[in-house]
Amino acid sequence: xxxxxxxxxxxxxxxxxxxxxxxxxxxxxxxxxxxxxxxxxxxxxxxxxxxxxxxxxxxxxxxxxxxxxxxxx
Length: 73
Hints:
mainly alpha; 81% helix; rod-shaped
């Protein structure tokens, strides 16, 4: 039973990590697009998107740390 729980837990963790990575990548793409604009508003948005990408990367790392190995019953 513990092995089934561990497998399910790790699958959920992998799925959550994938979402955080997807958001990180989307924020980086939007940031790069905003950086190409010369408007001050776009540059401010780019800075915010860059920060969001950094936060998503940190979230992915924290989620990854929740993976379980060798759960004891």
